[in-house]
Amino acid sequence: MNRPLIPWLKRAALLLCLAVLVSGCGHAAYTNRSQLLLIGEGQEMQLGLQAAQDVLKKEKESSDLLQTERVRRVGWRIAMAANKPEYKWEFHLIEKNDVNAFCLPGGKVFVYTGILNLTTSNDELAAVMGHEIAHALERHGAERMSQALMLQVGGQAASIAIGSSVGPVASEVFGQAYGIGAQVGVMLPHNRTQESEADEVGMILAAKAGYEPAGALSLWRKMDAYAKSKGKSQPEWLSTHPSTTQRIADIQAKMDAIRAKYFQPQYLN
């Protein structure tokens, strides 16, 4: 009675391959890294807009006009350097003591007041905002959703195939192992790749906007000290982010070349 599953699996695999070949090819801006993109940019931007509206319903915007203006000024300069006019850029300062910032697809940027304690210079703030804007520019959100979709379909198909030959118990065990293996072996390393890419592209954007790319180096040294003061650490292989030590080393290795190629010192800081 399991024989009808085999043609279904073949058809599913064929359709999946066709979807990847037809709509999944893309390359990241600046780094030219190959990307799997199964979600259109318009759809991704709509999802970002919906998410931004949800954030603004739940979070309180800061009443500090000077810091809000600072965030917007730095953000707009980097947005201009990103040269993505189809994005509807917005910059929000959220009153929360979290050391955090993010940019949703379509250019909705949120900075938490807690991170301003570490970004005492505009160069450091530009490093934060350049990094987050780079995530949107490189379409990392759509890439992660596309990869998750591929993993989900692949896992279901393989689980069905194994279940048809060795029974439901073994199939369930495989499903659990596939989930763990996919998360640790694929999704997390890929997210670390995106984080490193956002560091590099973020420095490029900051430099093009007239900010000193060395701001990223001083920022991550502060972040390292902050994390150690809070006793926060976990193995890199179980993290979505590179280790701070690796991050600082990568920034140092790329900083001078980025400055020489992209830095526009004619802008006032």
What would you say this structure looks like, in words?
The protein has 269 residues and is mainly alpha-helical. The chain has one domain (22-262). It has helices spanning 5-23, 41-58, 65-82, 122-137, 140-166, 168-208, 215-229, 244-262, and strands at 25-27, 34-36, 90-94, 101-104, 108-112. β4 (101-104) and β5 form a beta hairpin. The radius of gyration is 21 Å and the shape is globular. Mean pLDDT is 81; it is low at 158-162.
Could you list the spans in which at least 5 consecutive residues all have pLDDT below 50?
158-162
Task: Summarize the biggest pleated sheet.
Answer: 3 strands, mixed
Strand order in space, largest sheet: 3-5-4
Shape: globular
Number of helices: 8
Strand content: 5-15%
User: What string gives the helices and strands in order?
Assistant: HEEHHEEEHHHHH
Work out the count of structural domains: 1
The counted number of beta strands is 5
Oligomer: single chain
Structural class: mainly alpha
N- to C-terminal distance: 71 Å
Q: What is the share of helical residues?
A: 55-70%
Q: What Rg is obtained from the alpha carbons, in whole angstroms?
A: 21 Å
Mean pLDDT across all amino acids: 81
Provide key terms for this protein.
two-stranded antiparallel sheet, 269 residues, 5 strands, mainly alpha, 3-stranded mixed beta sheet
